[in-house]
Amino acid sequence: MTSPSNRPRLRRICLGLIGMLYVFSVPWYREATEPLTLRLGMPDWVAVAVVCYVAVAILNAVAWILTEIPDSPDDAIGSDASRGPGYSNARSDEKPSEVSR
Q1: Does residue 40 fall inside a structural domain?
Q2: Which range among 1-10, 26-35, 48-57, 64-73 shows the weakest confidence by mean pLDDT?
Q3: Distances (CA, A) of 6 to 2, 25, 60, 68, 77
Q4: Rounded distance, CA 45 to CA 26, Å?
Q5: What pTM, to 2 d.p., does this model score?
Q6: Structural domains counted in the chain
Q7: Structural domain includes residue 44
Q8: 79 found inside a domain
Q9: Position 33 in a domain
Q10: What is the domain extent for residue 20?
Q11: What is the pLDDT of residues 39-76, one digit of tens each?
Q12: Residue 38 pairs with which residues in a beta bridge?
């Protein structure tokens, strides 16, 4: 689909478009005295809002597809494995666990 280096950028673009669609879905641009017209069997401002919300749902799904989610907790940022070799989560006052032979 896309190269791994472009995924975060595309995800941010999707999230930005979602924000713009939410702003556009509010009928602030309509005059109070403007006559209603029907679109898709609904008042025009409702049809615009519904179309925007459907587009938001699609963009949200795309953004989640582009999100990198590690397969295991060891791959997660901040896990012990990502801190490098020799890192131990044990406190210095704890005794090492005994290995059964």
Answers
A1: yes
A2: 1-10
A3: 7, 28, 17, 12, 20
A4: 8
A5: 0.62
A6: 1
A7: yes
A8: no
A9: yes
A10: 7-70
A11: 889 999 999 999 999 999 999 999 999 888 877 776 55
A12: 43
